[in-house]
Design a protein that fits this description.
With about 675 residues, the chain is an alpha+beta fold. Helix content is about 40%, strand content about 15%. Helix 8 runs antiparallel to helix 22 (about 590-605).
Length: about 675
């Protein structure tokens, strides 16, 4: 009764809290757990205790185009570059003006504002920028609180509302996103204009879009294609000793060439001289082999961590041939519409210890929702605590896991069901013991040469019973797959080498990228970085793009005609090759963008500053533009721009000059 009476009072009589969610779906989820009765109005919901819930519809504001700073920038001219705004400007998006007006009025009425953007860097900035644009000041600004929601089910939303934090403590996260946004604008606008002007010199009429993430990603594909095209298969040779113990046990050991054989090996240590291999095989035949070392060790492999978005996209690509965008779209639907998954755009693979208390409800939901996992849930041990439960590894968001909501999966698409079951299986695995296996190795000396035999045996399947398809012999390392089991031989024991065998193999080219390997390359970009110091830094923090942007960047390269598919494989299109071959090398490598992400992460952790990140970039722009003009992009001659992209250019400007907005991404 109290809540109804309070709701009936005017807003002048009671304090009003205004929740600003990132999207309407989140706004509705917040309103659902607040006191009733509810009254829906234009762009908001008033609730029974006098509070109000409103929302953005994604980004309400966007960066202005260059000509907003100076009309002369409508014309694309080299002498205008680099374009560096002195005072950055945002403008309301045309499609969102009405909602921005709603928020303007509500902010004036509110006594307190609660920021309920998505729990990530971009979600923090998105709502912060609206608050700035609406000129919220004084005590109202100082008392803004932050609500972090990663699960749209009522219990989780209620818990988040009861655990509000001061919004200003998240300022470094917002600053990091702001630096990323402005740096992307500076780099994309200037380099896109510079390269497009160069392309016109050879008759290419499309926009040569350059971005600090999309271009290095395209560069990875172009270089991989080149490696495949230029690859020449070469033979190499391996020598195996076929051994027999006095007990009649048989096993094989592989020859390990000594340093004296270096001149007959390639850069990867493979023997390329057939005569040498045949000589070794002949010499060891019918000889005694002496054990110089014998090791047997039982090891434990913990269950795989719950998914973040990239890991989920990679696994879904391997198992279901789903693109990164298809996975993200399915996750978003499972989160917003069906409320079966937690927040999907997460880069974290750990869970708060507090979530361990919810395990029974989540497992019950999985057993109810996914019939294929019913027995797996029943066989799990909820007393087990895997390494996934770690508060120290969780920041704004946690791993993607199923929610406690029980629902029929009949209404889900096949893609949504596949994704749900992948995520659910990974969660169930946390309640299974470690996989135990025994690694054996025997080192032998045969006629002065070193031979090594290896084998791996499963001792306890543990969590691997949930993944039978992953346990095939083919997935073992080649050296481990040679022997199923090794005899129990001690140091000093002897056995008989019945024969030496030479196996001839051919080197194979690198495989073309597909969705899974391209995503893996984006998240593990450190291995493509030339500078060893940067590679060392990136061992834990590398990545092209973010969890939220990777799928969109890949799709963008397809839309712009820079990438193409042939079946499941991904190749660079002619325009993509021409673009990469005409750019300064530094713009095509992941080194720069990897450094960006490291610096942006440092800003969010208060270990770096906005100024320290932006100033070096502004200083480097002039040099990059100058380098871009030193090479004529002859590879683009006679190549036609993708029709859809040419239409975009004509639609955007009456002067037939491409819009600066074409550089986005």
């Amino acid at each position: 009764m109290y809540s109804i009476l309070r709701y009936a009072c005017s807003t002048d009589d009671i304090a009003m809290r205004l929740f600003i969610a990132e999207k309407p779906s989140l706004g509705r989820a917040i309103a659902d757990v607040l006191p009733k009765p509810h009254r829906k109005a234009e762009g908001c919901i008033y609730v029974g205790n006098g509070d109000c819930v409103s929302w953005c519809v994604g980004h309400l504001l966007e960066q202005v185009e260059p000509d907003a700073y100076d009309a002369k920038y409508k014309q694309w001219r080299l002498e205008h570059l680099p374009i560096v705004p002195k005072q950055w400007q945002l403008k309301p998006k045309a499609s969102s003006r009405k909602q921005l007006s709603v928020l303007r009025q509500l902010v004036k009425q509110a006594d307190q504002i609660i920021h309920a953007g998505d729990p990530d860097r971009e979600g923090q900035l998105l709502v912060d920028q609206v608050i700035d644009h609406l000129k919220v000041k004084g005590s109202k600004r100082e008392t803004i609180q932050r609500c972090l929601i990663s699960d749209l089910n009522p219990a989780a939303v209620s818990r988040a509302i009861n655990q509000l934090a001061e919004n200003k403590t998240f300022a470094p996260l917002s600053t990091s996103a702001l630096a990323r946004s402005r740096a992307d604008w500076l780099y994309g606008i200037n380099m896109t204009r510079a390269l497009t002007l160069q392309g016109r010199k050879v008759g290419y009429q499309g926009v040569l879009s350059v971005g600090r993430v999309q271009t290095p990603l395209l560069g990875l594909v172009v270089r991989r294609d080149k490696e495949i095209e230029q690859f020449v298969a070469k033979p190499f040779y391996q020598v195996f000793a076929h051994l027999e113990t006095s007990q009649g046990e048989h096993f094989k050991a592989k020859w390990q060439p000594s340093e004296a054989c270096a001149k007959w090996q390639d850069e990867e240590g493979r023997v390329i001289a057939k005569a040498l291999a045949e000589n070794v095989a002949a010499r060891i035949t019918d000889q005694t082999a002496t054990v110089t070392k014998s090791l047997r060790k039982v090891k434990k492999q913990p269950p795989p961590l719950p998914y973040n978005l990239s890991a989920l996209q990679t696994d879904a690509a391997k198992r279901f041939s789903m693109s990164a965008k298809q996975v993200l779209d399915s996750c978003q639907s499972l989160y917003e519409r069906h409320k079966l998954l937690t927040y999907p755009r997460s880069d974290c693979r750990y869970l708060p210890k507090q979530h361990f208390d919810d395990r029974e409800e989540v497992l019950a939901a999985i057993a109810n929702n996914a019939e294929s996992l019913n027995q797996a849930v029943a066989d799990g041990d909820t007393a087990l605590t895997s390494k996934a439960w770690n508060d120290g590894k969780v920041s704004a968001h946690h791993a993607i896991i199923p929610t406690a909501r029980q629902a029929s999966l009949v209404k889900l698409s096949s893609a949504e069901r596949n994704i749900y079951e992948l995520v659910a299986r990974q969660y169930v695995a946390q309640f299974y013991p470690a996989h135990e296996y025994s690694d054996s190795q025997i080192d032998l000396e045969i006629v002065g040469g070193l031979f090594i035999a290896k084998a791996r045996q499963s001792v306890l399947a543990g969590w691997k019973v949930l993944y039978p398809a992953r346990n095939s012999q083919k997935e073992q390392k080649p050296d481990l797959a040679i022997n199923r089991i090794l005899p129990d031989l001690k140091k000093g024991a002897t056995c008989h080498c019945a024969k030496g065998e030479v196996i001839e193999k051919l080197t194979t080219p690198p495989k073309p990228f597909d969705d899974a390997s391209l995503l893996a390359a984006m998240t593990g970009v450190g291995r493509f970085v030339k500078n060893p110091d940067i590679r060392k830094v990136l061992k834990e923090t590398d990545g092209l793009g973010t969890e939220a942007t990777r799928a969109g960047i890949i799709e963008l390269l397809f839309k712009r005609g820079f990438l193409q598919r042939k079946g499941k494989q991904i190749y660079a299109a002619a325009a993509g090759k021409g673009l990469i071959n005409s750019l300064p090398e530094v713009a095509t490598l992941p080194d720069m963008t990897a450094q960006w992400e490291t610096q942006l992460n440092a800003i969010s952790q208060k270990a770096g500053t906005y100024k320290g990140f932006m100033q070096p970039l502004q200083s480097a722009l002039g040099s990059l533009i100058e380098q871009s003009q030193s090479v004529l992009p002859v590879g683009l001659k006679d190549i036609k721009a993708k029709p859809a992209y040419k239409k975009f250019r004509k639609r955007r400007t009456a002067t037939k000059k491409p819009s600066g907005k074409a550089a986005a991404g």
